[in-house]
Amino acid sequence: MQPGLRYYPGRLDADAQRQLVETLRGTVAEAPLFTPVMPRTGRPFTVRMTNLGVLGWVSDREGYRYQPTHPETARPWPAIPGALLELWRAVSGYHHDPEACLVNFYNGGAKMGLHRDEDEDDVSAPVLSVSLGDTAVFRMGGPERGGKTETLKLASGDVLVMGGASRLCYHGIDRILQGTSTLLKDSGRINLTLRRVTRP
Ligand code: MD6
Ligand code: FE
User: Minimum-distance ligand to the CA of 160?
Assistant: First the structure.
């Protein structure tokens, strides 16, 4: 594993997962999932997204950025739920709260190409990821595209913290293993990533 990468399998128990999904249902009703498109080409992502927090990550033809409002409703993103703030305080090792929680929803065929999370001004803060629902095949590489990679299966309740040297490493989701969890009503997977965007 890359230095600075910390993996907490089953960090959230079944009850905590169910409560979190219930909370997310409410927030997604306020800030609906949207389908982002790639900069320039306008090619749609296979995942649908929304955000929580004072800033949210969006991608459209203009590029990638953080903004305070939902691109379709133009309303501020809902607040990050207390349970997620508590999780960040317990495991991030970072002394300021996150500003953004990106919510990614994967149906059975969705995936996410290799990328680095580099749109944040503060890359000294880790990115904390929570997986809910079907297991995903996560690919972790190094700081350069085309380097050696390894895979990790992220199951419901797993928490992954990408800090230190791993913070700017390439990673992505190869595929979703459909039917591996019954947490979500219509199967699929939710991934939450908590981020500090600005320098405190
Ligand atoms: C996913 N995760 O698990 C995609 N990024 O669906 C990410 O892109 C990610 O897990 C930064 C840090 C941790 C992650
Ligand atoms: Fe990422």
Answer: 1
Q: Which residues line ligand 1 (CB under 6 A)?
A: 104, 112, 117, 127, 129, 136, 138, 154, 160, 162, 171, 173, 191, 193
DSSP collapsed to 3 states, the chain: CCCCEEEECCCCCHHHHHHHHHHHHHHHHHCCCECCECCCCCCECCCEEEEEECCEEEEECCEEEEECECCCCCCECCCCCHHHHHHHHHHCCCCCCCCEEEEEEECCCCCEEEECCCCCCCCCCCEEEEEEECEEEEEECCCCCCCCCEEEEECCCCEEEECHHHHHCCEEEEEEECCCCCCCCCCCEEEEEEECCCCC
pLDDT tens string for the chain (200 positions)? 789 999 999 999 999 999 999 999 999 999 999 999 999 999 999 999 999 999 999 999 999 999 999 999 999 999 999 999 999 999 999 999 999 999 999 999 999 999 999 999 999 999 999 999 999 999 999 999 999 999 999 999 999 999 999 999 999 999 999 999 999 998 999 999 999 999 99
The architecture (CATH level 2) of 5-195 comes to Sandwich (2.60)
